[in-house]
Amino acid sequence: MHLHINSYGTYVHVKEELFDIRFKNSEGVVEHKQYAAAKVTGIVLATGCALSTDAVRLAMRNNVDILFVEQSGDPIGRVWHSKLGSTTRIRKEQLVASLGPSGVMWVKKWLLTKIDNQLAFVKGLKKHRPQHAHFLDDKVTRMEALGMSIGTLDAGCVADIADTLRGLEGTAGRLYFETLSYVLPAEYRFSGRSSRPAGDAFNAMLNYAYGMLYGQVEKCLIVAGIDPYVGFMHRDDYNQLSMVYDFIEPYRIFADETVFRLFTAKKINKAHVEEFVNRQGGIGVSLNKEGKLLLVTAFNTFMDADPVRYNGRNLTRNHCIQLDAHQFAQKLKSERAKE
Amino acid sequence: MLVWVLYDIEKDRSRTKAAKVCKQAGLYRVQFSCFLGTLTSNEKDTLRLKLEDLIDVDRDKVYIFPMSKDELRQTDLLGQAFDKNLVSDEVRALFF
After folding, report:
1. Distance from CA of A30 to the nearest CA of B (A)
2. In the beta sheet, which residues pair with residue A4?
3. Distance CA B79, CA B96 (A)
4. Which residues are A20's β-sheet partners?
5. Distance CA B35, CA B37 (A)
6. What is the ipTM of this complex?
């Protein structure tokens, strides 16, 4: 299980080789809860909490992933033992692939999967919304056309077509989110994606869900021995987790689906979000504790407790990401062996 | 599998240690000398060996009972009982 430490002043330390969480309950009384390292898969710490070095040590010894996040859910950093998940050969091949044609192949594959997922989702929406069929059909055709354009692109390395790819992907994304907004109940509609700050409840939820997904994908990549900082398509800026942004594309649908379902089921109301004004004077929306609780529970259940058919096996979605990461690493390794 | 660990251990020191070993294995304390939780069969064997080392085999008693999920579903819980979802590892996230 994941321990989410959100409340101000909560302290995570070790007692009898167990994670001990000290917090104030709703009556203001200090309480302790203990959890065995064997049962904890990850600890997610928001700002305003404390962690002891012994807790870090216990986590390292039991492969527990400690993730630090902003209040918005964006991961800031993680504590993980400083070993590679696998052999360095994978990283070398990853660097080679990032500069050659096989990088183009991978990027296209990820983007096309993403667009396919989006299309499948929109087509699924049509089943129960015959009144919107015309609107949805139009969007589907346009997104399919964009997918085709991505499919036909070809180059010796990703950098040559990166701008075109980003453009096509962006347009597809815009069409997709327009569609989602269109079919939502009127009070939840939004105009396009927004982050830092999110302009509406839907974007706030989606940003938080993507934040969790980033953390998950990064972990899967590290475990598979892939360098999360060496991307194929995203820019190699300072401390940019480029490979995470590349690799996450096919899985974004998991976050989209969870958030969308919460909204269409009318599970979200004013009690889950808070409006605020940031330093630049912009009005933003953020999730409060109840909102995070609702989203995290829904997302974790979707990712971890609800198996899907995948390559002939029943697997949880989290497990699928990990398997894909391992397969990606193995393919990188074997590609060169063939030459 | 779901595992119950029940014990009667005479020496205070060993009893305290037994409780600690059970908690570290990932079991939850449902009564003073009674633990419950989900373990793999390897984890169960490890726990057995650890408890075996602690106790005085001539005087103390330790029971390790496996239980199926089906049987847990049929269990009746009254009063301040344990959380079925927690012991069967169905809780994916906890908030503090």
Report:
1. 12
2. A44, B95
3. 25
4. A13, A34
5. 7
6. 0.84
